[in-house]
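ARCHIVE CARD
Drawer: 12
Card no.: 0347
Subject: one protein chain, sequence and derived structure
Cross-reference: see card 0346
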Amino acid sequence: MRDELGILRFLGLASKAGKVISGYDQVEACLNKGNAKLLIISTDISKNTLSRILDIAERLDDRMPPAYSFSTKFELGRAIGRPDRALVAVTDTGFADRLSALLQMED
């Protein structure tokens, strides 16, 4: 069973360590530079923003990091101490690997 609160807390820890980028423009730049190791997309992301991210994913192809749909914009923002965030990129391999393992756990 996936521990949503634990995932959000761990995301907050990664943010406090300075290993999280959030917001569309910053995440796009991080993806284009190849610095993102994991992407979290809110479950309530707008269709327009999702379409733009999918366009980036198509362009980056095999350089696109793993991406997961998880939680709401409000909860993602709250977890990292920011306003609502539809996109969050993790830039550290260790944090990304742990979050990926947590996110892959079955509901």
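Annotation on reverse: The beta strands are 20-22, 38-41, 67-69, 87-90. The chain has a mean pLDDT of 95.
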